């Protein structure tokens, strides 16, 4: 079961008008194409994704009355780890005092949190682990191209975490479908800084340490795949629209969210959304939504989570709250 959720977003607000001072864009274009009005950026030197992850997990432990030493596993879903190694999960575990936990990072781009939720749940299902923290944390401001208006306005920074625990009740991850297709590599990636193209002056001059996205191709894939996989989960579990409490979609683009909503047959009120305030925080979008809507959620609510991201990766999870 998910026994708690908690999030953290940095204080600094970068709104669309502010972006228009740096690149040739405007509020109307960004809102009408994406639904984003503002996003948060983590400022300050030596501040990586772990800083936000630590805040989210600290709040989660407090909320769930968990002593840090009780945590068995910290699983961090991120595309912007503090560094290649050690894992950001280890840095977060150390930062919150989870001295008995093991941890690792998981990268499935924007679908990472769903992959992490399913992976974390399976550790619980083995019966060996009692408290698993899955945290989505991304400092997207560290990898955006500040001169590319097509991508820079889309992303924001944030983190959010859930606690997974065993229960006798039939709640938690009921069903899931995770998919991937490496055909997506050319359309959404960060080319340099890895083993194929290690950092050099040339790669930096060529701006290869920032997000490269062919927006319209990604959009076409995302619209189809996210809607298809969500519909598959709904049909497989024979859920009628009135039995679904909320759709919880990855927050990349309002039009992609809307296409998924229509395919599943839900009214707008049943869709968790905060893209207007945070933009695309990659691995944090879905848990940040759960955090935002936490007070509206009731035990036993049927949630359909859905995501699409670089890879390509995509998936859907039927989560009973
Ligand atoms: N402001 C003003 N104009 C802009 C901006 C901007 N910020 N960005 C692009 N434009 C212009 C383009 O230059 C282009 O102008 P042109 O016709 O003169 O060349 C025009 O707007 C249309 O550009 P498109 O890219 O075709 O715009 P589109 O309607 O496709 O929207 C967008 C672009 C919002 C990026 C869309 O393609 C999209 O949302 N793609 C998917 C993003 C996504 O979901 N990514 C997956 C998750 S990310 C992850 O996994 C890390």
Q: Going across the biggest sheet, name each strand in turn.
A: 1-7-6-4-5
| Poorly predicted tracts of residues | none
Topology pattern, helix = H, strand = E: EEHHEHEHEHEHEEEHEHEHHHEE
Architecture of the largest domain, according to CATH?
Answer: 3-Layer(aba) Sandwich
Name of the CATH homologous superfamily of the largest domain = Thiolase/Chalcone synthase
Q: What are the distinct ligands in this entry?
A: acetyl coenzyme *A
β-strand percent reads 15-25%
The best one-word shape is globular
Task: Please tally the helical runs, counting DSSP H or I stretches of 4 or more residues.
Answer: 11
- Class of the largest domain in CATH? Alpha Beta
Main sheet attributes: strand count, strand direction, barrel closure? 5 strands, mixed
- Please report the total strand number as a whole number: 13
Any idea how many domains?
Answer: 2
Q: Roughly how many Å is the radius of gyration?
A: 19 Å
Structural class: alpha/beta
Level of helix content? 25-40%
Q: Look at the structure and give the mean pLDDT.
A: 97
CATH topology of the largest domain: Peroxisomal Thiolase, Chain A, domain 1
How far apart lie the N and C ends?
Answer: 7 Å
